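Why show two proteins at once? Because comparison is the fastest way to build intuition. When a single record is shown, students tend to memorize it. When two are placed side by side, the eye starts asking what differs. So, the first record is below.
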Amino acid sequence: MTCHSCQAYHQIGCSFTGARVAQCPGDFWVWETVLHENPFSRIMELGTAYGIFSCYLLMHCLHRGAEFQTIDTPGNPFWWNSGRKHSSGGSVIEHNNGRVIERLGLKDHYVQVDAFSPEGTKIIRDFVSQDGPSILFCDNGNKPREAKLFAPFLKVGDLLVVHDWKSEFYEIDIPPVVRENFEPLQEVDDKSATKFWKRTI
């Protein structure tokens, strides 16, 4: 299943602060709802890509006085490809990544590491296991493996979030630890491709 907003994203692109972002328009509405209704002390993002959705999450953390960290795999093209124009479906959206990222200081919150390496796994575990509610956002290259490996690190009250629901992550990919210890926060409709769970046990 591909949500209608995702189809629109691939046709015309989606932007945040005028820069292209790899999220559906409906994802922002769901994120806003969840972040306003659930207290959090930190957000860990797996999958920085061009960094614009990272900026969105960082802005929420700055507003709340929360910590933020984003991780991506060495070798991926990140925000230093800023200034490039993307043309799709007749619209042109600029990757104004560099200016936004510099102003927000995103590089201070960015770690380039393989999340599945011993070093990366330790960084994730140490970050989300701190006191206070943590949010772990799986949006890197292997979301089923990320959820299976890292969800056990989350505490009661923490949130697990997975992007590309029913396009890269399916019902069958939900690991046992999530089925047995987490509750879904919302039903994903055709306007969002992001799934949220909250640890209750």
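Second record. Ask yourself what differs from the first in the token line.
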Amino acid sequence: MCALRVIFLAIILFIIPSPSMAFHIGTLQNTNKNNNNYNDFITGECTEQNNTLKCNFIQISVSKSLNEITENSEIINEYKENPNIFDKFTDDGTCNALLNPNKEQMEKTKASILEDPTLEQVQKAYIKVCKEKNLESFLIFSELINERKKNTCKIISNPYIETFKPDNNGGWVSVRGPSGTCGLIVISTLKKDGLEDLFWKYTTQKKIMNRDASHILGKCEDAYDETESTYSWRNKDKYMNCIYIHFGF
């Protein structure tokens, strides 16, 4: 009789899942990035059930668009190779719209300048390029665009799901991969960083197994940063001098 009762209880425990417990990890800032052109943080909610922790994370990155800046030397070299390059640049219909705007276009321009007064200077420089079609006017216009890019911060969100198992140190560990041509493995940990569930510490690191392989980003060993990143609730203010904000890529 006792044996049957034990079997019955085992079946009940197997059929009925253990209760789940959900918690929010707060806002964890990347503590590795020391430059003023990039920073990111993660946030999200985790649910613990049956000795497994499933987390729905969102990574938010803020970065400067410095890699999109066009150097004057590039423009000058291109001009030397093709002195008529500005004809193609000014024949896309934009110049005609600027030089001969209709009423609707004028209203849109006024509204845009009210939202961002610096656009008026950019527009005037563009009109000068349309009229003169020379290197000097284009360099002035390019410098204004570059200055805008230097002061623009891109905000990009990246949602992802990670599943953790208990580690030997009272925390949680996740191992994803290997995946793709590079045999990429992502190892992440999540553990309490204080006495209460409000404080958490998250680490993540990429490992490349096929270092000599290549894919769309180039050689695998050059495509990924294998430095471990640590995210902490001990957030610090970050100076980035963002005058403009651009959402997305």
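One difference worth noting in the second protein: Residues 20-64+154-247 form one domain.
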